[in-house]
Amino acid sequence: MTNRLLADALNTIALFERAEVEIAEMQRTLVAIGGALDSTYGSLIREFRQAEADLEEIRFGMLCDEQRPAAILRVDKLKELILAEMAENLD
After folding, report:
1. Is residue 5 pLDDT above 60, yes or no?
2. Do residues 12 and 52 make contact, with C-beta atoms less than 8 angstroms apart?
3. What is the 3-state secondary structure (H, E, C) of the chain?
4. How far apart are the first and last CA of the chain?
5. d(CA 49, CA 27)
6. Whole-model pTM?
7. Contact at 8 Å (CB) between 27 and 89?
8. pLDDT reading at 1 higher than 80
9. Closest of 86, 88, 91 to residue 13, by C-alpha
10. Rounded to whole angstroms, how far apart are CA atoms 5 and 50?
11. How many other CB atoms sit within 10 Å of the CB of residue 77?
12. What is the rounded CA–CA span in Å between residue 72 and residue 43?
């Protein structure tokens, strides 16, 4: 279940990076997945929440043409953490 949620997050990040979803959709996905993760993934849950908060700040605190590049940099950090978590669960 957890790997499926994390895979869904990676899929949405990929769509976001290709400009197929907007920042608001990316935020909704982070909130939904962060809320659905088991509490044993506390540090990852915090990362999802922080990424969502950072996207909120980017969305409302930056000019429109600056938002996507800044948001992509932010979700790339989350993507790396997700990939590391998934790799750890394979061991």
Report:
1. yes
2. no
3. CHHHHHHHHHHHHHHHHCCCCCHHHHHHHHHHHHHHCCHHHHHHHHHHHHHHHHHHHHHHHCCHHHHHHHHHHHHHHHHHHHHHHHHHHHC
4. 17
5. 9
6. 0.92
7. no
8. no
9. 86
10. 17
11. 13
12. 21
Question: Which residue has better confidence, 15 or 91?
Answer: 15
pLDDT at residue 91, rounded to an integer: 52
**Exposure letters 7-40 (e unless 16+ CB within 10 A, then b):** eebbebbeebbeeebebeebbebbeebbeebeee
Long-range contacts of 44-48 (CB under 8 A, 24+ apart): 44/81, 44/82, 44/85, 47/78, 47/81, 48/9, 48/78
Distance CA 33, CA 10 (A): 11
Q: What is the rounded distance in angstroms from the CA atom of residue 76 to the CA atom of residue 78?
A: 5
Residue whose tokens read 């909704």: 28
